[in-house]
Amino acid sequence: MRIAVVFDTPYAGWHHPEHERQMTREVAAWHDDEPEMEYQIADALRRRGHEVFLIGVADDLQYLVHSLGEVRPDLVFNAAEAFHGNPALEYMVPGLLEAEGYRYTGAPPQALLVSRNKAMSKKVLAYHGIRVPHFATWRPGEALETPPGLRYPLMVKPLQTDASAGIAQASVVQDESALVDRVTLVHERFHQPAIAEEFVDGRELYVSVLGNDEHLDILPITEMVFDKRKTRPEERIATRSAKWDEDYRARKGIRNVFARPIAASTRARIESICRTAFRALWLRDYARLDLRLAADGEVWVLEANANPFISYGHDMANAAVKAGMEYYDFIQRLVNEATARYDRA
C-alpha cells in the first residue's frame, strides 16, 4: 500500500528527502535515543512492506495539499499532533484530509475538538450515563467564585490542553483563595478558559481502545502507580513532571505499570464504559481514556485522548505488545482498522 505519513514539524523547509535522511539517522541510533514518533511509524510501515512517504507540515496547508497531490497515497497515516506549533489546531490536518477526500487513520476533526475541550467532552459523556467529576469553567475576565454544590478539593486545568500542560501539584486547590490564584494563572499563562473539577482520589488508569463501531478491543489496562510513602493523596496526579521527568518520578516513586489486580466485575464495567465513551465522542481506530478507579469501586472518566502518543515503549504501544502484537503489527493494525472502516462506508 502507498502510505503518506503526515506529521507536524518545526522544519518548514524540509521535504521528503530531508526527513528521510533524518529518519535513517534516528532509527539507526534507536538504542541511544528515541526516534520521533513519525519516524517510528514510517519504519514500522516499511517493515510491513508498504511504500512510505514522509510529509512534514509546519504552517502551510497548501504545502500539504501539493505534497499529497504528488504522492497520491492510498492512505494517509495521520501523525500530526499540532499545526503551526499549536496542539489546539491539530484538527486542521484531518479537516483538510476530509475536504480533499483522502482516507486517513485516526479521529475526525469533531472528535479531536470535542475531546480536547474538557468541559464539552464531560457533558457528552455524562449525557451517555458515564460518571465524570462535577466541574465549572471560567473564561478570562469572568467573575470567579465557587459555584454552589462544587466540593473541594478541586483540580484546576487549562480547558483545552493535552499532555498534562498546566497541571502541577498546585493544580489541586483546597479553598476559594487558592482556586482564584490557580484559575488566574491558567488565564494568564495559557490564554484560555480554566476548568476546575472535583478531585477524585483513586487509582490512575489508562485504557487503550482499538477498532470501530461494534468491534472495539480493549488492550491491557495500564496504571500510573504512586508510592504512598512519598506522596499525599492530592499529590497523586498525572502532572507533566509525573509523566516526563525521570528524576522526579524516581524521587516520588512513580511508575507506569500494567494495572494491578482489578476485580473481574469492575474490569468488565471499565471495558463497557470505555466502549460507550469511544462511540459517544466519535473516536475512530484508536484512542486512550484516562480513568480514576475510586476506593468504593466507582469508575470516573477524566479525559479522552483522541490522538494518543503511539511511540514504542510508551503506554499504548506497551499495551499492544502485552496483548500479543509486535510494535510493527500494532501500527499495521491501525492501518487495517482505517482501511476496513472506509471499505465498509
CATH homology-level superfamily of the largest domain: ATP-grasp fold, B domain
What value does the average pLDDT take? 96
CATH topology of the largest domain: D-amino Acid Aminotransferase, Chain A, domain 1
Task: Assign the structural class, choosing from mainly alpha, mainly beta, alpha/beta, alpha+beta, or little secondary structure.
Answer: alpha+beta
Count of structural domains: 3
Please give the share of residues in helix.
25-40%
Strand content: 15-25%
Largest sheet: 6 strands, antiparallel
Radius of gyration: 20 Å
Distance between the termini: 19 Å
Shape: globular
Q: What count of helical segments does DSSP give?
A: 12
Question: Would you count the extended β strands for me?
Answer: 13
Which regions have little confidence, pLDDT < 50, spanning 5+ residues?
A: none
Give the name of the CATH architecture of the largest domain. Answer: 2-Layer Sandwich
What order do the SSEs take from the amino end to the carboxyl end, as H and E? EHHEHEHHHEEEHEEEEHHEHEEHH
What would CATH call the class of the largest domain? Alpha Beta
